[in-house]
Amino acid sequence: MEDYETNYDDLKTAVRKVLGRGDLPTAEKIREVIGKYRVFPDYQVDDGDAEKLAKQMEGSLGVSMEIGSVITEKDYKEWLTAAKAGIDPYYWERYHQLLEEKHFPPRVLAKLDDVTDRLLGLLGNPREDGPWDRRGMVVGHVQSGKTANYTGLVCKAADAGYRLIVVIAGIHNNLRNQTQERIDEGFVGRDSARLQTGKRDKFIGVGRIDRNHIPVSLTSSLRDFNKREAETNPFDLNVLTVPVVLVIKKNTSTLKNLVNWLKEHNAKGQNQIIDAPMLLIDDEADNASIDISKSPDEASKINSQIRELLHQFHRSCYIGYTATPFANIFIDPASEHEMYGADLFPRDFIVGLEAPDNYFGSEKIFGDDNISVTREILDNEDLLPLKHKNHYEVAALPESLEKAVRTFVLCRSIRMLRGDSTAHNSMLVNASRFTSVQGELRDSIHMLLENIKRRIRYSSAKPEADALQDEEMAKLHDVWLHEYSSLEFDWCDIQEVLLEAAAPIKAVEVNSKSSGQLNYSDYEKSGLHIIAVGGFSLSRGLTLEGLSISYFLRNSMMYDTLLQMGRWFGYRPDYEDLCRVWMSPDAEGWYEHISESIEELRDEIRKMEKLSLTPKDFGLKVRSHPDTLIVTARNKMGSSEKVHVRIGLGNRFIETTTLSKKQEVIKANRNVAANFIAALGAEAYDKSRPKGNFLWQQVPAQRVMEFIGAFDNHPNSFYTESEPVVEYIKQRAIDELSEWDVVVISTKGGESDDLLGVRVCRQYRAENINTVKRNDYLVVSDKQRIADAPMEAIGLDEDLVKQIKQNYTDHKTAENERQGKPPSKSGSFTVPGRKYRERRINPLLIIHLLTILKPGKKGEEKIPSIDGGVIGWSISFPETKYEEEKVEYVVNTTWWKDTYGDDFDEEELEDE
């Protein structure tokens, strides 16, 4: 058996070497090469394993990654090309070889080489006499390989001549420890934990390849920077022949100790400046690094200490890595402090990294590529409500969470049957920010697991019919039927391995107060199989190896918090089809919105690169984005009741997703809509009536402003607040917003309503489940949407709409072909609204007449929750040429908490 496994591994290595060269191999080519090697004794495997290897090769060798967009300051001068000949790529070559041994797809490795070269060229030249001070930002995707990227950059920076490299790795110990392990493996080459425990030195990762120039590491995977220990072996950075690296937690005492140690042992001259070039990498740069001080003359603690650290060096470079850059872009580029120096705005460069094709990200789960991954949580309120207090008692687990646990057991069974019996397997449960509640959840899940194991041990060896008489086995079988029965294995196959799959699974608590550790490296031979229960500790940077099942029940609606909590993003080779994410419909709707918003932001980076614009231009653009509110209000609100926010609405879509339940308001808004439509006149009905809708064109801006101004907007529908929207239109009413398209949506099969003097068929929209018990307002649908994306095409020329659809279909089809996905069954794709918006000349006002239904599953009887049709509206604004002309919104703390939930200050919670 051992010889057979060796044959398989040797065959995989040989085939990969052949196929990793040249053009992207076809499925036929992969099988052809495998067949040629199988004739030799050392490479003989059976047909099943040959096909398994072929599929693995398709999934890995077919992966490609594009070099991201780059925007720089105007006077940037490229230096690396000329310096290349004088740089010995010692550290990079070691790292490159390590990644090859780890079977990184060859094309990804080639692109990583290109991307890290471009990044290195954007840093300061360490061989150039100073002074210089570079500030930049890299925008990646959550769990997309940012650590691999900046480890490569660290290697190349060391080769180029950087003497001190500091990696700031999040605000929690487990993330810092995990990052240290990655740096040890990819750059240092030593197991740093053994050095500080007095054990025999152990070379790991790149240290097994070459150990001639091992960097000095002042931190270990067990311990952060300690000034007292560092002082036992003081040294001059300029004298050392190898670079020094530190991986530190984003902690005020650690930063203070590091700055003081550097001042005492390396600062020279009258100004006490360190001459050695320094690179500072700030991982999760949007978290805690931002200056949120209320005083313009002060800076918040961690922000000021990072700036002070940079200020100690004659030559330094700061590069922040983040997937959620709103906060970083909102930094004032002009902010300067005598002691701390310039703030951390990425004034010199911004790089947008593209994820490889096999990245399992928000676009794939929540965007246009939506695959069947998400499952709704609808049964938590009685047992585990979204809003609960510390020490809330978990009497029992929601049925949905029990189902998720059973799905995890089945998932591991299928992975074993696929030959991945020693691969890591993880499940995430993020359902409370309180450590006390996390502890109770962990205990309850542990008891459930033990019962599952006990029943499997008792029943799984029985004949199938007898085994399914057991209640727990029957529940596992039901989950298999619903989730995995369409895959390649029958239930008899699953039942045979259930015990072996379930036995090693354990539930661990992962937070600042627990002893639970995600020590995957200790289980390389057998795999670690865990259900990780936590909160904020699981929400930033931490990688859950082999994550397949996620149970997410949080009420934060802030982009950065939500995206960072999405630990399910990443790479799922050979088990993407097994992954499931349980979440509330609310959260799913917000993730869909975030997916589109982040993609818009990436589009802006691409456009600005083409126009040769600067990071400052990008900052001004993003600052006017409505979604910047999540940064502005949170950072500036503090204890104050109101915050004034200036927002631009160009190329934006806004709609009244929150509506009043008061009958007098509903009636008044119907009258406002009826009067507005009557004033437009009936002659437009014959001009165009697409799909039963009523469309008017060339409507004067004044009439639209009168409608919006008279409409009684609910305060919780923030972006449709009448005064700033009218002001925005008024600023542009003389030219780009002078003429409007106005449409009243009338759907087939809807309830008939005499709103216009003609019969309009209402749209059906369910009320959000969280506002059913409220008497004052409702939120429209669990996804907080009224309009559908195709509505933004109304008013555009039919030929243009066809062209947009065809272009988008061609783009998605080519993308699917490149990634080896099957073609769309319908032959088309749903075009995002922004694609139509980009081609609009006139703005579009959409008026909705809604029948609001009680929440319920599809197919249930439609039961209205409110008497009479309710009016809502949407606006699709085209691009504006007045990018810096914004209008002012006012945010108060009540609205903030109602809209974004209780997690709005989560970053400041030490106790979760």
CATH class of the largest domain: Alpha Beta
CATH superfamily annotation of the largest domain: P-loop containing nucleotide triphosphate hydrolases
How many helical elements? 29
Largest sheet, strands/sense/barrel: 8 strands, mixed
Poorly predicted parts? 294-299, 685-689, 903-912
- In whole angstroms, the N-to-C terminal distance is 49 Å
Find the CATH topology of the largest domain. Answer: Rossmann fold
Tell me the radius of gyration.
29 Å
Domains, number: 5
Overall pLDDT level: 80
Please give the CATH architecture of the largest domain.
3-Layer(aba) Sandwich
Percent of residues in beta strands: 15-25%
| Rough outline | globular
- Quaternary class: single chain
Number-wise, the strands total 30
SS-derived structural category: alpha/beta
Which range best describes the helical content: under 10%, 10-25%, 25-40%, 40-55%, 55-70% or over 70%? Answer: 25-40%
